Amino acid sequence: MLNMADGVARLGALAESPVVATLAAAFTDAGHELSIVGGPVRDALLGRTTHDLDFTTDARADEILRIVKPISTAQWDVGREFGTIGARVRDREKGTVEQVEVTTYRADSYDGVTRKPTVEFGDTLEGDLARRDFTVNAMALRIPDRTLVDPAGGVEDLLARRLRTPADPRVSFGDDPLRMLRAARFSAQLGFDVDPATVEAMAQLRETLSIVSPERIQGELVRLLQTDDPVRGIRLLVETGLMDQFLPEVPALRLEIDEHHHHKDVYEHSLTVLRQTIELEQARTPDAAADVPLRLAALLHDIGKPSTRRLEPGGGVTFHHHDLKGARLARKRLQALRFDSDTIGSVTQLIEQHLRFFGYAEGAWTDSAVRRYVRDAGPELARLHILTRADVTTRNKRKAGRLAGAYDDIERRISELAEQEELNAMRPALDGNRIQEVLGIRPGPDVGKAYRYLLDLRLDEGVLDEEAAEQRLRAWWAAQS
């Protein structure tokens, strides 16, 4: 539960920090107001770590730049048209540098056609706060006098663990539909419930998301997946119909369950896989940043099931080749959302290969099969380990134990083979140039065929020295002739 006394103490400590004190003194000496605003205030009250400091002021951009220059090591004005100046201010006590942004009070208006505001600068802090997305982000701490300004009741909503817009949510979301996705992200990030009127407005205005660029939608989806519990936000997006607007394959996982044909709930299964993936990811790499491609693959790994579902006589249900279908669907959707090619490649490869391990669980693989598994996974092997383990959601303890044991075994064998033969390199003894020399041929398709032959030998028999590889290559070439 939120302890307000502790929160106020943390706000006081934030105001006393050398960087904040330096900025406050500089703006006061220049005759301007300055306040810490938004996320840093919210996080201080909640006891969360604050990474960036955001300030707001009545000064215009040129004046902000003039004030911060003497107290900063660098400045940038990429947001000048929006009244934002960035700077690096040195903490003389710690010898470190804090990155800060200072923005002029805003009183923007929106045309309802695009989400780009008509930039208008305001004259009061209260007016600036009224235009922000949620009440918990619409609080400010005036400095240096340390006055908490909370015109929309953000503190009450923090205590209630509730997300609510400062204005009528239909007006707020009508102004900027991206705020609806931010509601899902903050709900997941903070563990807060969204006010019922706000949820209703999200459902009513879901189609207005069409005016938001794919890049902006992708950015919010990524930020949601980077939280510790994105499932809360995903459920909200599905329930309000927002997910249908940009990632319809996820709500499509809610397959109707035929009373005569039983199978697990694919939607709930996918959310469980996502949650288990995050748990395994954090256990294996506790200090690493959130692995967004892995989490995307976990969420989307079964999106091929709706279109491949077949109801069989006797009550069975099959989803043949849903891995391949899902990979194709994921590629198309991620491209539409403007994801980079590396992310798309990783996600689609993981989806396409997520079923491969279950063949191992059903019967022992030869060393050759294990090598091929490693070769095909390539740099995605570590992610594939996590996704495959997370994909086990059965409540049958005996089956779950058998699958876990099988994966322990394959990871052990991969490790042993890697130690024996430098498995990660996975290259034959002869490269393309040496193949041409040994066979006396010129560059062309035959070199590729010869290389693949040697690679198959490498996978089937392990490491061959160069002399043995040349002998086998000559014999193979003679047979080809």
Structure, explained:
With 481 residues, this protein is of the alpha+beta class. The protein has 4 domains: 1-159, 2-Layer Sandwich (Beta Polymerase, domain 2); 161-246, Hydrophobic Seed Protein (Orthogonal Bundle), CATH 1.10.110; 280-421, no CATH class; 432-480, no CATH class. The chain is built from 24 helices and 11 strands. The protein has helices spanning 4-16, 18-29, 39-46, 61-68, 125-130, 154-160, 169-175, 178-190, 196-204, 214-225, 230-239, 243-246, 266-284, 292-300, 305-308, 322-336, 341-353, 356-362, 367-377, 381-390, 397-421, 432-439, 445-461, 466-480, and strands at 34-37, 53-57, 72-79, 84-91, 96-104, 140-143, 147-149, 162-163, 193-194, 310-311, 317-318. The strands form 3 sheets. A 7-stranded mixed sheet has the order 3-4-5-2-1-6-7. Strand 10 (310-311) and strand 11 form a beta hairpin. Helix 8 (178-190) runs parallel beside helix 10 and helix 18 packs across helix 21 (397-421). It starts with a helix and ends with a helix. The model has no long low-confidence stretch (mean pLDDT 89).
Record the SSE blueprint.
Elements: H1 4-16, H2 18-29, E1 34-37, H3 39-46, E2 53-57, H4 61-68, E3 72-79, E4 84-91, E5 96-104, H5 125-130, E6 140-143, E7 147-149, H6 154-160, E8 162-163, H7 169-175, H8 178-190, E9 193-194, H9 196-204, H10 214-225, H11 230-239, H12 243-246, H13 266-284, H14 292-300, H15 305-308, E10 310-311, E11 317-318, H16 322-336, H17 341-353, H18 356-362, H19 367-377, H20 381-390, H21 397-421, H22 432-439, H23 445-461, H24 466-480
Parallel strand pairs: 2-5, 8-9
Antiparallel strand pairs: 1-2, 1-6, 3-4, 4-5, 6-7, 10-11
